[in-house]
From TrEMBL:
Feature: compositional bias, Basic and acidic residues: 1-19
Highest taxon above the source species: Bacteria
Region (Disordered): 1-54
Pfam family, one: DUF7218
InterPro entries assigned to the protein according to its UniProt record, in alphabetical order: DUF7218
Protein species of origin: Mycobacterium deserti
Name of the protein described by the UniProt record: General stress protein
Length: 54
């Protein structure tokens, strides 16, 4: 189970995952607190640039 990181982190589970990947505490907290953070997928989240047609 994810630890409780206080009221500054809204999504503890996502925060833990980002920290395990080597992300800084500040960056991980910012991402896990952003709107829609729990909806984010990974590579296939449906957001990003278009593929080039070459």
């Amino acid at each position: 189970m994810a630890k409780d990181h206080g009221s500054s982190v809204k999504n503890d589970k996502q925060y833990e995952g980002l920290r395990k990947k080597g992300m800084s505490k500040q960056r991980a907290a910012a991402i896990s607190n952003s709107p829609g953070a729990s909806k984010r997928g990974g590579k296939n989240s449906g957001k990003g640039g278009k593929k080039s047609g070459s």
